[in-house]
Amino acid sequence: MCFLGWTVTVTEELFYDIVNDYEVKRRKREQELEEQLKVEALRRKEELEERRREELRLQKTPGRSNAVSRNCSPARVPKMVAISQPRSASKVLFPSTPGRVPAKVARVQGDKGECSREPTMNTLSPAQARSNMREKREQLKKHVMEHGEKLRREEQERLRLKHVHEEHYCVQEIKTELDEMPSLGEELRRAEEEETNRLRKEEEDRRRLSDEERTKKKEQEARTLELLEAARKEEERRAEEERQRIREEQKIREQAEAEARERQRAEEEEAKLRLNVSCSAELLNRHLANVSLNTSTAHNRTSPNHSSYEMTPDKTYKPATENDYNIEDLSSGDETDSEPDLTLIFGKKKKYPRRGSSGIWESPISHPRQGVGAYQNRLNKRY
């Protein structure tokens, strides 16, 4: 292998030594990173514990403190006096309530030898405790996510380097002859060509997939348009059939109405004609009843004047048909109806006497019966 004018003979043992050395360094870096993370987490935990201890040391009951506190109302904060005696640190931190002796007196000695009264511990409220726990959880979650992201990036970098090593430097057989060993420049050029070919192939595959997707999309759109067009034509056909059916029904209904009107008009004309015929026959009968029956002399007598019309013929009574009951016969009202005796069919009805005024109303109380009453009969039966 030739690199910058130097000829290097790469053997299989040397290659695996390089790979193993890289793996050892990587594991060492990971262990150092884990140790640093553990130290950082321990330091943060100690700082948090120290801050909590300091807060507990400085806290006191709001009723016994002159310092502004979150648990103390602003109205209970004492006013600052211009002329006041300087107090010690312990008195400033933990002043006692005027006119009141503390229940327990104790002194706490700090790390630097300072003595102060034992502070009254202020228990955290549930909301503060939940807030502190929430902050802890968020910090821990953030730390875990950062650590996981960092490990993931390192793992990706390791896999990338391993892939590069496997792609460029892993060979099935390494020739020991110098003249058969390819130069580093040729390997790099071949690697670049392979990378270029791979990228070009990926680009072609991507372009082919995009073309196929566009073709499929166009085919799907065309199929959708065909379905919509078919649905529209089917809807138009159904609408046209519905309109045709409505027109046919309207035509049939109009034809039936016209036939009904024509039939009614014919029946009315026929009724009028029968009425005219019956009236003419009645008038003729009355005329014949009033005219003398001595027709022989009338026939023998010659009249100089001739009549301009013929004698009206006699009425011909047509028998009743299925639809004609000879209702227009004028003599039908002269006959008596032969109705049956309804009392024989339904029987006689019981007629109740009409009640008059209240003065003459007959009641059982006003007309008692002779004999023993029903109540007395019940008493006699019992006793």
From TrEMBL:
Its main location: cytoplasm. The keyword Metal-binding does not apply. One of its GO terms (cellular component) is midbody. GO terms for biological process: meiotic spindle midzone assembly; metaphase chromosome alignment; mitotic cytokinesis. Residues 62-72, 119-131, 296-310 have a biased composition (Polar residues). Residues 41-58, 186-252 have a biased composition (Basic and acidic residues). Residues 325-340 have a biased composition (Acidic residues). It comes from the Eukaryota. This is Inner centromere protein ARK-binding domain-containing protein. It comes from Oesophagostomum dentatum. Keywords: Cytoplasm.
